[in-house]
Design a protein that fits this description.
Layout lengths: L2 H20 L5 H29 L3 E8 L4 E7 L1 H24 L8 H20 L5 H18 L6 H28 L4 E2 L5 E2 L4 H14 L1 H19 L5 H11 L2 H11 L1 H11 L17 H24 L4 H26 L5 H39 L10 H4 L1 H15 L5 H15 L6 H29 L4 H10 L6 H19 L2 H11 L7 H6 L4 E3 L3 E4 L2 E3 L1 H21 L30 H6 L26
Antiparallel strand pairs: 1-2, 3-4, 5-6, 6-7
């Protein structure tokens, strides 16, 4: 069976899983097991298809149904780029589905069969959008499939008016994005194209459009410019790019159940990134790079995308710093992290037109960094949503002000949350740093080609410090601060609050991957280089032959004079840690534990405990113009009461 045919089977399994789970009604365990079986099979097939494509170094395509009267065909196409996104979807889909089995205990009034049916429809839409090569009819079909499942899940608690409003706003923006993308495709579509193999592609196929781009650029500049602008807006909306992300993403992600939030932020918004790559990289022929600055200057489009990315990462992160609800804080950070990805893509487009091989290598470094950060963000942001879900499962609140001291009661969740917090903050030896490092290299060393890239890079680096501050609040207040009254009351029931294996295992799996890709990013760079080596559509032809870095097992990877050696850094940090331990024990002083002393002026109470609201007051005051004031929890938030998930 060809990999493209395997992808067709993946779609069939997801849709069959939707039907079977929908018939289960509210029998939660049965619906959960059927959904997990369907997701496991589809994930395994997706990974297998991706592996076969990369191993064979050859794309796989097959046409299942053609509609020549409409110029569209149900043609599935899996190349190296699609393989990367399929693997990301498969990993997070499995983690979210397994986690959902027990997490649904939080929603006693929710229909488990409906939840899992919508989840499978959601996954089918995502897999279809990654694999479909049609840009009109069947693109719209899979987009609607993705949207129908996710819309129903965003408004899963439909008794809450704010959730319904968030879902409706999400629906409006997603439908608008779909329409704009289709209009862009219609502007570019010419006629059918015949491949060297003899296969005839209908006019709305992405590869057919790519074949006619050079001729279209020569005769109709306005159509190409308008189409690229429509693609930037459409897929920018989907990715959460400024100014659109603020209008729908935080409310949608915060309204959905936590495992669905992990899919929305970890995978679904990456479809916007995927769409931008397919249109701005794969559709543009290399011949366009020789054109002068103007409508088709990819340098101009690259600077615009890098600028929008920089604004997105700064505004999104500053808005996240203000939040006091776990899911809203994470949702705003999804906007900020997408900004880094857009910055990397923008740097790639800005630099790729240079005739200098070293500069083109920097463009490839930006491109690799953007895709690497796409994968990394999917992993650590999904993990953070699952962490927040576990906190909600045990405390019944998303309000950070009501949390404190959870590490004592949820040590395993705390450890995975710490790894995710380090990862998103860009701390060395965690995967977020490795991908951001590649983007920084591309932007800083590419300054000679475009001076603005240095400014964008400085803003990005400083914003990483804001991200770290935000997650010091997220992790420090909830896990490390003095135990809050709510946590003390919840923990007094059993003496612990740790979630069960079905919820903990997905968190451990994602945390392990964050650490692996942080310590050994060589694993990803080698795999991505092999995958993209035969994804040569459009500008991918130049990126496929350009080496963004030289790689060594111990020395890490090198781009021009910039070197990142994570293994050597790890050994150095372990050595220094050992020295600190030896020095701290050299005096032989005895250690003791005692209650904190408040200088005789205050007793320990809830009023004397640091909360999320009290942190970074001056920063928030000076950055009030960025918007997104924090929302506060309603008095009674947990639909399952104080005993929800007691045996999870």
């Amino acid at each position: 069976m060809m990999p493209a045919q395997q992808l067709a089977l993946v779609l069939g399994i997801c849709l069959a899983g939707a039907v079977l789970t929908g018939l289960c009604g509210n029998r939660r365990r049965l619906a959960g097991w059927i959904s997990l079986l369907a997701t496991s099979l589809s994930s395994l097939l997706a990974v297998t298809a991706s592996w076969r494509v990369v191993e064979a170094a050859q794309a796989s395509g097959c046409t299942l149904w053609a509609l020549p009267q409409f110029g569209s065909a149900l043609r599935l196409y899996v190349d190296g780029l699609a393989a990367v996104f399929l693997v990301l979807t498969a990993i997070i889909a499995f983690a979210a589905t397994l986690y959902s089995m027990r997490f649904l205990d939080c929603y006693r009034e929710g229909n488990a069969g409906w939840y899992h049916a919508c989840l499978q429809i959601f996954l089918a839409g995502i897999y279809g959008l990654v694999g479909i090569s049609d840009m009109m009819f069947f693109f719209c079909f899979f987009w609607q499939l993705m949207l129908a499942g996710s819309y129903a899940l965003v408004r899963f608690e439909k008794n809450k008016p704010e959730n319904v409003r968030a879902a409706n706003r999400y629906l409006f923006f997603m439908e608008g994005a779909c329409l704009l993308a289709m209009l862009g495709a219609d502007l570019l579509a010419g006629g059918n194209a015949r491949l060297a193999s003899g296969e005839v592609l209908l006019k709305y196929d992405a590869e057919a459009i790519g074949h006619g781009m050079a001729a279209l650029m020569a005769k109709d500049q306005g159509a190409v410019t308008g189409a690229l602008a429509l693609f930037l807006i459409a897929f920018g909306i989907k990715a959460g790019m400024w100014p659109f992300g603020r209008l729908w993403l935080p409310d949608a992600d915060a309204s959905a159940p936590a495992p669905i939030g992990s899919l929305l932020s970890g995978v679904a918004i990456k479809l916007g990134v995927y769409g931008l790559i397919r249109t701005f990289i794969c559709l543009i022929p290399p011949s366009v790079l020789s054109l002068p600055v103007g409508a088709y200057s990819m340098k101009g489009w690259g600077i615009l995308m890098a600028l929008l990315g920089t604004i997105t990462l700064f505004i999104g992160t500053v808005q996240a710093l203000k939040q006091e609800q776990t899911l809203r804080l994470l949702a705003y950070h999804s906007i900020g992290q997408v900004g880094y990805i857009l910055l990397g893509l923008g740097a790639c487009l800005t630099l790729i037109g240079s005739g200098d091989k070293a500069v083109v290598a920097l463009a490839a470094a930006g491109f690799y960094g953007a895709i690497f950060h796409t994968i990394n963000h999917g992993l650590f942001k999904s993990l953070l949503f699952l962490n927040a879900g576990s906190m909600y499962y045990r405390t019944g609140t998303q309000d950070l002000n009501k949390m404190g001291g959870l590490m004592k009661y949820m040590p395993a969740t705390a450890l995975t949350a710490l790894i995710a917090s380090f990862s998103i903050s860009g701390v060395p030896l965690f995967n977020g740093f490795a991908s951001k490092w590649s983007i920084y290299v591309s932007t800083i060393l590419g300054t000679k080609e475009a001076g603005c890239l240095a400014f964008f890079s400085i803003v990005a680096i400083l914003t990483s410090a804001v991200t770290l501050a935000s997650f010091m609040k997220f992790f420090g207040i909830s896990f490390l601060s003095r135990t809050s009254r709510l946590v003390r009351e919840k923990g007094a029931v059993d003496g612990h609050m740790e979630v069960g294996p079905s919820m903990l295992l997905p968190q451990v799996l994602l945390a392990f991957m964050c650490m692996l890709l942080g310590v050994a990013p060589i694993v990803f760079f080698v795999g991505l280089g092999q995958a993209l080596g035969f994804s040569t559509q459009g500008l991918g032809e130049l990126l496929a032959v350009s080496q963004p870095a030289t790689i060594g097992a111990l020395t890490g990877f090198k781009s021009a004079p910039a070197v990142f050696a994570p293994v050597m850094v790890m050994f150095l940090m372990l050595f220094m840690f050992g020295v600190v331990i030896l020095l701290s024990n050299a005096g032989g002083a005895a250690r003791r534990e005692t209650e904190p002393w408040f200088c005789g002026y205050a007793r320990e109470s809830e009023q004397n405990r640091y909360t999320a609201h009290g942190l970074y007051g001056e920063i928030k005051r000076h950055l009030h113009w960025a918007g997104a004031a924090p929302q506060h929890s309603p008095p009674a938030e947990h639909p399952a009461g104080t005993d929800a998930g007691k045996n999870g």
